[in-house]
Amino acid sequence: MPPALAPGPAIVFDRRHLLGIEGLSAAEIDGLIDLADSYVALNRQAEKKSSALRGRTIINLFFETSTRTRTSFELAGKRLGADVINMAVATSSIKKGETLIDTAMTLNAMRPDVLVVRHPESGAVSLLAQKVDCSVVNAGDGSHEHPTQALLDALTIRRRRGRLAGLVVAICGDVRHSRVARSNIHLLTTMGAHVRVIAPPTLLPAAIERMGVEAFTDMRRGLEACDVVMMLRLQVERMQGNFVPSTREYFRFWGLDYDKLAAARPDAIIMHPGPMNRGVEIDSEVADDIDRSVIREQVEMGVAVRMACLDALTRAARANRPADKGR
Ligand code: ASP
Fold this sequence. Notes:
Elements (H helix, E strand, L loop, with lengths): L25 H19 L12 E6 L5 H12 L3 E6 L7 H14 L4 E6 L4 H6 L5 E7 L5 H15 L6 E5 L6 H12 L3 E5 L15 E3 L2 H5 L4 E4 L15 H8 L3 H4 L7 E3 L12 H4 L7 H24 L9
Parallel strand pairs: 1-2, 1-3, 3-4, 5-6, 5-8, 6-7, 8-9
The structure holds aspartic acid.
């Protein structure tokens, strides 16, 4: 007999894994954002613990470095009363494929409830999800997807603007190598926002328009009258070859400063997933502008969103949904 469901919000996300935003419905996205929104107040209280995940085990398995994402998944699990274990795995010495599957099978044998996985290869997290019995959350796989980042960005925007539909959102910078951009494009277009991508031609993926976005290479034209300016880090670790002339020149044409920002709506909000390269993709003063920048709020929303995802996935599992749904 499966244990009875703890009282709480109804199941909002009836899937075993969260591997990406692509393919999620607007109702599923809304459900996760609503649940996350309900956790914001708990995170602002002195007493931040709930018992929704008491007795559950979460393993953070990170094959790539992370500060914000790993810490916020850890906090999220602990605030929900789960036991959380962090594992950082060095990939350098062993063949990556073997490391991934071997490690997954070893951890699977310890019967965790959720594995939170980050890996430098696109698709690696989905592969791992096929091998284990527990839920898997993609905490970023190569340049493919970073679903919880897009959800926390959406929660931040919705709390500031009251909606997502109809907003004009400009995603600027290294779109080609960015999993943040890809997840955000899927989410925002599904929710009815108008998405623009702005990048140097070398950093715009071919046929990006097929994802339902408008592409620009000129910052001022792309930022015209937009409601949200989302900056991206130059992902030099994923670049093979020269994609930008120099960081100085990059800043001159594609870095966000007050001059270029003037093209956006006067109340446009500024976002960045972090870590920021100040003076490369964003001017330091703009990043710290408390009237325009919501970068710190994004970090705060990250904990609430990860609580919602962990809660939703374990709720679905507890309700004894067939394990082989595997979506
Ligand atoms: N932290 C985000 C990620 O893991 C963005 C970045 O690294 O630039 O993708």
